[in-house]
Amino acid sequence: MAASHEIESLAKAFSGFGVDEKYLISTLGKWRADQAEAFRQEAPFFAKDERNFERWNEHVVEQLKHEFLRFKSAVVLWTMHTWERDARLMKDAIIDGPKSYNVIVELACTRSSEQLLGTRRAYHSLFDRSLEEDVTSHLKTPERKLLVGLVCAYRYEGQRVHEDVAKSEAKTLVIAVKNADGKNPIEDEEVVRILSTRSKLHLGAVFNHYKEISGKGIDEDLVANSILLDTVQCLSTPYPYFVKVLSAAMNHGADENTKEGLTRVIVTQADADMKRIKKEYKKQNQLELYEKIEQITKGSFKDFLLALLARDSNEN
After folding, report:
1. Per residue in 171-182, pLDDT tens?
2. Which H helix or E strand runs over 256?
3. Which helix (H) or strand (E) holds 94?
């Protein structure tokens, strides 16, 4: 029969982020029938029905499907052209609905103007529809105007900032965010215009003036409005935003939608801003990002993520 320590090790190999394929192969491939029976009786994945039949827990089966697929999903995403990758992530987020609107914000606001334009072209080729068409037709919530504006943006990326305009727009944001007229700021056309058209450098000046006028940073005033908060963070402080996504994904008890942020951020940022993301993660957590991933992930999924994290070190 399978020893209790072996059953415990197998349970761990099945549990968590990814699965330990090598251990499963080396152990399960040698099992006899009595060892498999002992595993079914002692492992926490099985139950007996009213006919005393041993069966997998359906919830566990569904979770295992996700875990076995993590490595494949990461590899497939990594090998895509960046435009196709972002286009497919956009499509999934649109279909997922409100729980994934942050992904639309992330992809629209952390990319350059040319990258976002490429994503829109790829979306058109892949799905025979425009990205803005799908955002408009699928979203029925107050976020629609903002998200359409963000995915359609082609921002100025030069160094010029008009301080007087920035200060005026900061005042506009303060009035809207403080809800002086009781209106949700995400439905304010001026808020949408400022966030979806202004350059990131200009917005940095706007947010600085906002703090001078308000006495608090705009991110502090938007804690209760997650989509606007994500928008501001992605446009002005993307590295802390990415760390927020990574930390939420690796938090014990995170749901599947949140967990997907780990693969998405590491795969999409491996050749972009990973060095600065790792630095920010260590600053916030007093722990290297690779150490955390080593702690919580398993098998080929872990090995692949660590390989991507090491790319900026290898290229120096």
Report:
1. 999 999 987 567
2. helix 256-269
3. helix 82-96
